[in-house]
Write a structure and sequence with these properties.
The protein is an all-alpha fold. The protein has a domain of 99 residues: Tetratricopeptide repeat domain (Serine Threonine Protein Phosphatase 5, Tetratricopeptide repeat, Alpha Horseshoe). Helix content is 72%, strand content 0%. α9 packs antiparallel against α10, α15 runs antiparallel to α16 and α15 runs parallel beside α17.
Length: 406
């Protein structure tokens, strides 16, 4: 602030005017304008540098997440794969590698345990959103087709995959999807031909998928030994994926090799110690070998780990029935039927044996009240829907008073 002494009461001088010339005023205006231009230029450069840095960081992060996803896939950690792929997609929703990795990991994880079917719908949602945003990206469209087939839509999956192959005949995921789709509708020869072509592409990122499709194509044709060799080749590339062991076990069971199937299920448990599906399969194998004590032990573990899964209670009750423990059979089969009712399982999808074997156990034990209740529940279901299997007593009803004819 400039002190104007000519207006100050402390001044003993005579008033004197001070003039500001035109040059000084123009100079000040120029300085202000210059400073404004310099400041704006600096700010603009700063913003551009920040934007470029953020873009570079985003690209780096996507690469980092995808590297982590590939490493996790090699270790069979599908949970980590899905997490890493989702992080990459949060930065770039149409990153082709992330879409393919997320879709494949979710589909394979859906076959890993009894309660993972929802993963197939998650895979479809991710792939569908990306496919709508990037309709011309072959990798994303192939991932969408792969997810469609896994979700039970093989016709649409084949249509999309074949359109990709028209332009890119060496696209392994598209070729693999065509094989899986044709196998789903019963065209096993075409499925085999397409899976062989997919394997011959030698795509290092997709060979496991192609070999798995080849194994399934051989299995559909009844060539279980060839199917086993194909899945063993896939396991040599990655021996940490439970889905491959489940399929290896299935092929060995078809060949009557229960020992090899058992080893495959134990491999799953080595990877995932809490896996419920593997324990149920071990229960079934033990039952097949009439090793009822072992079967009961495995099925009991299933019901402990998954108490809300009716299939576990059915298998446990069935084993008790086969072992002659009808009281335990009736109790566990009742849990099976009650859970299906409580969970509103559609009648056409219910496990009929839970009612039938439960009624047989009650009849053997002379538990007429339970038999009447179980049989009446069954008759009510028959009225509302078609049920696989039948349970019919003579017109006078079961050997207990109070039940009429069906």
């Amino acid at each position: 602030m400039r002190i104007q002494r000519h207006t100050s009461r402390l001044s003993f001088r005579h008033p004197r005017r001070r003039r500001m010339g035109c040059v000084s005023f123009t100079f000040m205006i120029g300085v202000l304008v210059g400073l404004g231009v310099i400041s704006w230029t600096w700010l603009e450069r700063r913003l551009n540098l920040t934007s470029d840095a953020n873009q570079a960081a985003s690209t780096l992060n996507v690469s980092d997440y995808m590297r982590a996803a590939r490493e996790a896939f090699a270790l069979g950690d599908l949970d980590a794969v899905v997490r890493a792929a989702r992080e990459a997609l949060s930065l770039n929703p149409v990153a082709p590698d992330a879409i393919m990795m997320a879709t494949r990991a979710l589909v394979y994880r859906s076959y890993t345990d009894y309660d993972r079917a929802v993963d197939r719908q998650s895979a479809l949602q991710i792939a569908r959103d990306a496919a709508r945003a990037a309709p011309d990206d072959a990798d994303i469209q192939a991932a969408y087709a792969f997810a469609l087939n896994a979700a039970g839509q093989p016709v649409e999956a084949a249509r999309i995959a074949e359109r990709i192959l028209d332009d890119k005949p060496d696209h392994t995921l598209a070729r693999t999807t065509v094989s899986l789709a044709y196998g789903s509708v019963g065209s096993f020869e075409i499925a085999l031909r397409e899976s062989i072509l997919a394997v011959q592409n030698n795509d290092p990122d997709m060979t496991i998928d192609a070999l798995r499709a080849l194994a399934l194509a051989h299995s559909d044709r009844g060539s279980y030994a060839e199917a086993g060799r194909a899945v063993e080749a896939a396991l040599r590339l990655n021996d940490h994926l439970p889905v491959l062991y489940f399929e290896q076990a299935l092929f060995n069971l078809q060949l009557g090799n229960t020992d090899a199937a058992t080893v495959a299920y134990f491999q799953v448990l080595a990877i995932d110690p809490d896996n419920v599906k593997a324990r149920l399969r071990l229960c079934e194998v033990s039952s097949l070998l009439r090793e009822h004590s072992a079967a009961i032990s495995y099925c009991d573990q299933v019901t402990t780990l998954a108490p809300a899964w009716s299939e576990g209670w059915y298998r446990l009750g069935r084993e008790y029935f086969l072992a002659g423990n009808f009281e335990a059979a009736q109790e566990n089969l009742h849990r099976c039927s009650s859970l299906q009712i409580m969970q509103n399982v559609p009648v056409s999808e219910r496990r009929f044996e839970c009612w039938y074997l439960q009624g047989q156990a009650a009849e053997i034990r002379g538990d007429c009240e339970a038999l009447v209740q179980t049989y009446n529940e069954y008759r009510e279901m028959v009225v509302t829907a078609q049920i696989e299997g039948s349970w019919t007593y003579p017109p006078e009803g079961p050997p207990c008073r109070g039940v009429g004819s069906p």
